């Protein structure tokens, strides 16, 4: 049994659950690692809550690490005002590093 988009609702709210980037990665790892975890969460009705928690944690971690890396690398609002292309290049690099860190430490 697979959960369809219409079935992804939060308990007691009727609102559609938000399954974002990081939780989708976690969802895919169920197939790689073990179906027992996936099946257990699915049958207990806790799969969406689990994925939402991973996503919330990953997003908080992402925001925090991006700020820390940007400060460490000297990527400031001053740089953004003076040289937008350089600021974008460096921020993109920081975001990629942070996503790899989250993938390595939180998701897998």
Main beta-sheet strand count, sense and barrel state: none
Q: Helical stretch count?
A: 5
Number of strands: 0
> What proportion of the residues form beta strands (DSSP E)?
under 5%
- Please state the overall shape, judged from the principal axes of the Cα atoms: elongated
Describe the protein's architecture and organization.
By secondary structure, the protein is an all-alpha fold. It contains 5 helices and no strands. The protein has helices at 21-33, 35-44, 47-73, 77-82, 84-107. The two termini are 24 Å apart.
Give a brief outline of the structure.
The chain is 74% helix and 0% strand.
Overview features:
5 helices; elongated; 108 residues; mainly alpha; 0% strand
Tell me the layout of helices and strands.
Blueprint: H1 21-33, H2 35-44, H3 47-73, H4 77-82, H5 84-107
